Amino acid sequence: MFVRNAWYIAAVEDELGTQPLARKILGEDIVLWRKSDGMPAAIEDRCCHRNLPLSLGRLEGDHIRCGYHGFLFDSKGVVIEIPGQSTIPEKAFVKTYPVVERWKWVWIWLGDAALADPAKIPNMFWADHPEWKFTKCMPVPLACNYHLVCDNVLDATHLTYVHPTTIGAMSLVEFDPVIKQTEESLRVERWILDRPPPPSYKKAGGFPGNVDRFACIEYWTPNVCVNYGNNYDAGCGGTDGDPSKSAHKVELVALSIPTPETETTCHYFFAFARTFGFDDPQVEEFFSRGMVTVFEEDFPILQAQQKRISAYPGATQVDTRNDVGVNRARRMLQRKLDMEQSETRAAAE
Ligand code: FES
Ligand SMILES: [Fe+2]
Q1: What is the spatial distance between Cα 146 and Cα 259, in angstroms, rounded to a whole number?
Q2: Closest-approaching ligand to the CA atom of 45
Q3: Where is the domain boundary, 120, 155, 170?
């Protein structure tokens, strides 16, 4: 079950070019491409003649031609040419989807098209802001439900065990999180004071001693996770500190925005933004490769979890006090799903 009235990332901007891109999203097979004016297009990836995936065809200008008997579809999914006949049946069309390119990603709407307002696309200003350097990564296919990724990001206590040699630190569970919640978003904040920097941050920031670390995760339903990781020289952070006095700093934002593919698979879109080391190749390397390596440490965990969840549906799970963020996010998601379904039922009556 997915929230449908939401913008999901369908592709990284560079994935759309002169070849059709096939992508399954929320269980639907979709073909995407870029038109000659640069705008993205997305229609059902199934020919209405004899069901060949249209992504196996070829692009002709703004249109896509089926690779079996040559039906030509426009970017709204309507057949505009059938080889060998001049009439086009009324039912010769496939589904079309609203798509918008923003923040270096292509966003798609699979719900009620009348509600597809681009103003509802999450604000990812870091992608275009001169004070931030943005590093976006290619999507990673994961064999797990998309929300396991959100759960993972929302629960920073796993860093100790999954990322001990990179961004983990034993001190995380010592500091209770502060939870802030609105109708659509949740923040799980922690100041970790006067502790050794995690290995990766020590390398990136060159910290000579302990750090004050702000670990904050923001979640927006149904699937956007923004992870703020700010590290300052010890004494400069905390609620009373002044980070501008810190001689060393690592301020970064990690965006985790998994798009559901099916109930048990997802496309993991992620990116990093930072305020330092714009022209430093070592820092760039850390963000384009080092942080990806950190994320890769989570993938086997998430996929192994999904295997057990699929094998033992409804099995008992126990909670700890550190699960409060994850559990609240899950409840927010469920509320949104329930609301959407009751609205859909009401509209059908
Ligand atoms: S299957 Fe597409 S034109 Fe025949
Ligand atoms: Fe992780």
Answers
A1: 6
A2: 1
A3: 120
The answer to whether residues 42 and 136 belong to one domain is: no
Ligand 1 center to residue 265 CA distance, Å? 29
pLDDT beyond 80 at 200: no
pLDDT over threshold 90, residue 63:
yes
Answer yes or no: is pLDDT of 169 > 70.
no
Residues 206 and 320 in one domain: yes
Cβ burial 2-34 (10 Å sphere, 16+ → b, else e): bbbbbbbbbbbbebbeeebbebebbebebbbbb
Residue 342 lies in a domain: no
Q: What is the pLDDT of residue 127?
A: 94
Point out the domain boundary residue: 70, 97, 120: 120
By residue range, what is the domain housing residue 18? 7-120
Query: CA 148, CA 258: separation in Å to the nearest integer?
Result: 9
**Ligand 1: which residue has its CA nearest to atom 3?**
69
- Among 156, 105, 154, CA closest to 126: 105
**Distances in whole angstroms, Cα of residue 328 to Cα of each of 84, 183, 188, 342:** 59, 11, 10, 21
Q: Is 66 in the pocket of ligand 1 (CB under 6 A)?
A: yes
Residue 161: CB atoms within 10 Å: 11
Q: pLDDT above 90 covers what percent of the chain?
A: 72
Give a yes or no: residue 348 inside a domain. Answer: no
Tell whether 185 and 116 lie within a shared domain: no
**Per-residue model confidence as pLDDT tens digits over 242-264:** 999 999 988 899 999 999 999 99
